[in-house]
Amino acid sequence: MSQPLLEVTDLDVIYPGGGGRKPFQALTSVSLDILPGETVGLVGESGSGKTTLGRAVLGLAPVSGGSIHFDGQDISHLGRRERRKLAKDIQVVFQDPYSSLNPSMTIEQILAEPLTANGIEGKVARSRVKDLLDRVHMPSDAGGRLPKEFSGGQRQRIAIARALALDPRLIVADEAVSALDLSTQARVLDLFVEIQEATGVALLFVTHDLAVVRHVSHRVAVLYRGEIVESGPVDEVTRTPEHPYTQRLFMAAPVPDPDRQEERRAQRQRMLASQAEMREQAGAGLELDAL
What we know:
Elements: E1 6-15, E2 24-34, E3 39-43, H1 50-57, E4 65-70, E5 73-74, H2 80-86, E6 90-93, H3 107-117, H4 122-135, H5 152-164, E7 170-174, H6 182-199, E8 202-207, H7 210-216, E9 219-224, E10 227-233, H8 234-239, H9 244-252, H10 258-290
Parallel strand pairs: 3-8, 3-9, 6-7, 7-8
Antiparallel strand pairs: 1-2, 1-4, 4-5, 9-10
């Protein structure tokens, strides 16, 4: 059994208050690990803390408690210089392919930037850019064009190519397909799978969509209000979810069959009503105990 490449242990993230606001605890005692070459899906609704966890791994969110280890090294509180060194091994693909690429730079300049920053220049960098474009199935003349000349799916492929430029060992994909239409989503997800098989890169795939998780992940962790409520092999969690929150996420995922979609929507409404009734009964029981 391989040792984890990434190991998050009892992680707390608390954002400081300001302007009369109280501090906000975004994550509470979160633990997960990712093996080399593995994809772990991190799923939850907006506000669940999933993006915060990805940002903490990237050094963009404060670690208030617990630890984050990468390849055995504690990276929980690295300074800027150490973080820059780590950037070669940990990269990110953001949600919005329209804002994540510099509109005034050509695609070749965008992809060459991390290479030249790490001392790779000239013919070697240009050759590497061509290889990156080929790896994400972009046309050979894409290097001389601007981001505005490409569709959202193509821009996300370029963002993936940029993340691959330095041969990272881990990529954090933060809602990397949520801004794309369904057919483009499927093609980009297939690209992630293809790249992982070819390079062995590990992926932390942050998403709100269980269907996306099922497509790309080996294991999945479900976040609810800053805590992991369910985790395990992706087939097990997505086919027979045990926690009520995971069940609601599953019922909320769209399906192409209108009849199944209507049935699933009705089942979700029944589930929500049943859970609300249970909460009311529990509250009534507490009131009776207090008398």
